[in-house]
Design brief:
With about 110 residues, the chain is an all-alpha fold. It has helices at about 5-25, 40-60, 65-85, 90, 95-105. It has one domain. It is flat and about 55 Å long.
């Protein structure tokens, strides 16, 4: 079983248990929490796992590995913004920074 399936499966089982506890026992663990943002976080974590596997297999941080890594950063940040209830009006510069990091990692010959 590869790691993205383990991550995705583990997160889904955890969410299912939380929903079961909430509906069956009245436990309100998710009150005020944007729980649905976890579904944005799952593909980001899968991308990070895939980038790590690519790095281990190739032994270098090549363009394809950097692309997968950067591709996971954007949904990861979006999920964190929702999960932490951050104000979009204050944190939007993070996306400018991510775009800059993406451009730096995309330059030819970067190791």
């Amino acid at each position: 079983m590869d790691k993205p399936n383990v991550w995705a499966g583990g997160v889904l089982v955890g969410l299912g248990l939380l929903f079961l506890a909430q509906s069956s026992f009245g436990v309100d663990l998710l009150h005020g929490w944007n729980w649905w943002a976890v579904f944005i976080l799952i593909p980001a974590l899968a991308a990070f796992s895939r980038a790590q596997a690519m790095y281990r297999a190739r032994g270098t941080l090549d363009a394809a590995t950097r692309g997968v890594l950067v591709g996971g950063l954007f949904p990861f940040v979006v999920a964190l913004i929702f999960l932490l209830n951050l104000d979009w009006g204050r944190v939007w510069p993070i996306f400018v920074i991510l775009a800059g990091v993406s451009a730096l990692l995309a330059r030819p010959g970067h190791r």
